[in-house]
Predict the structure.
Amino acid sequence: MFYKAIFATFLSLFLCHQALASEFKDRVFKAGHPSLQDWVLPEKPEAPSDNLASPERIELGKALFFDPRLSGDGNMSCASCHNPSLGWSDGLPTAKGFKSKVLGRASPTVINTGYNSIQMWDGRKKTLEDQAIGPLESHEEMNTDFSAALASIRGSSEYQKLFAKAYPGEEIDKTTIAKAIANFERTVISRNSRFDRWIQGDKKALTKEEIRGFKLFSNPEKGNCEVCHSAPNFTDNGFHNIGLASFADENPDLGRYAERPLGLMKGAFKTPTIRDITLTAPYFHDGSAETLDDVVDHYVKSGEVKTNLSPNLKELKLSEKEQKAIVAFMKSLTSDSDPVTLPQLPRI
Amino acid sequence: MRQLILGFSLVAFSYSVSAAEHTVGQKNKEFTESSLTIKVGDTVHFRNDDSFFHNVFSLSDAKFFDLGSFPQGESKSVVFDQAGEIEVECAIHPTMKMKITVE
C-alpha cells in the first residue's frame, strides 16, 4: 500500500511535469503524448462572475451582434466586420468602417477571443465586455447614436423580453449590451481541428508532413513560431514588432506604444491566434500578407524593416520543404465548425 | 569639519549596511514573486530564466524605469530609492505583473 502511494505520487509528479512542459526540448511529438497537453484548450473560455454564460444571454448577445440597426446608418452590425462566413473577420486587408472609410488595421477574428487575456491589436481593452461597445461608439466604425439606439431597444417589447430573461433586474443600457455581446462571443470557439484531435491521441489526425511542420513550428532553432504563437491558443497575448514594411511609412502605426510608451513597444502589435487561420486571410495587422506562404517568407527574412524589431525574432534557416511543412501544419489548425444560424432579429 | 566628515561617513556606512539585494526571476512568463516588500535603498535584480526575451518596466510615480529587453541568463538591476507602491510588468508579455512595496 505504501509503495503504491509512493509510485502514484511519482507518477502524478511526472505527468504533471510533462503536462506543464513548455520547452521544445521537453516535448515528445507523438499523438496524445503528455508533454503536449498544454495545447488542449479548456472546453469553454472563463467568464467573469457577473456575466456567466446562459442560453438566454447568448441568444440576446447573438441578436445584438447581428443587428445592423444599432449603427449610425442602420446598415452595420458587429458581423459586418466579424462575419462568420469569412472566419469571423471580413477578408479585407484593413477594415472598412462608417461610410466605407478604410481603417488602419485588419478586423481581428472573433474566434477564440474568449480565451485571450487582452483584446485588440494594441491591447487597449482587457476583456470582451470592455471591448464590445468600442466599435459602436467609434465615429469611424459603427458611429452609433446611443440615445436613439437605446430608445429603440427599450421600446421594443421583443428586446425587452430578451433582456428581462438574460439579465433580470438589470437596466437595458451599454453595460448589459456589452455583457450580452461578450457572452455570445465566448461561444465562437475553435478547438476541434485535426491538430486538436492528434494532441488528444488520434494518430491518424495529422500527416507526417504536418507533424514535421509542428516540430519545426515549435523548434526555436528552426521556425521559432511558438515563441509567440504559444500554447494553448497559439498566442502569448504579447506584443511584438515583426518588421512589417508599413513600419517604414512616414507616420507608421505605433501600435502598443500608444498604451505603453516604451521604446520596445513602437510598432508592436498583439500576437493573433492562428487557430482557423485558413479562414482569415489576409494576414498581419495591416493585411499585407495574402497567403500563409507569404507569412512564412516574411519570417524567414526576419521581417522587412529591422528598426525596433522584436528581440524574439531571428533569421530562420529553413529549406523550402521545411517552410511547406510549417504551412501544412498551420492548415491543420482549422476546426470543423457547425454552420452558424442567423437570428431572427427582434422587431423594433 | 572632521566631525562633519565623520557624520557623513557614518550615514553612508549605515546606508550601505542596511541596503539589501533581492532577486526576482522571470520564468514561464511569470515573475517568480507576485509581491515583494523591500526597504528604501534596496536593489532588486530581475533575472530572465525563460528561453526567450523579456522586458521589465514600471510607470509608477514612485519609480519609473524601463530595462529594455534581455535574454535568458541575464539580469538587470534597479535601486529603489523612494518609498511607495510600484507596479512592475513585462511590456512584451503583459500578463506578467508584480508589485513591489518600498518602505
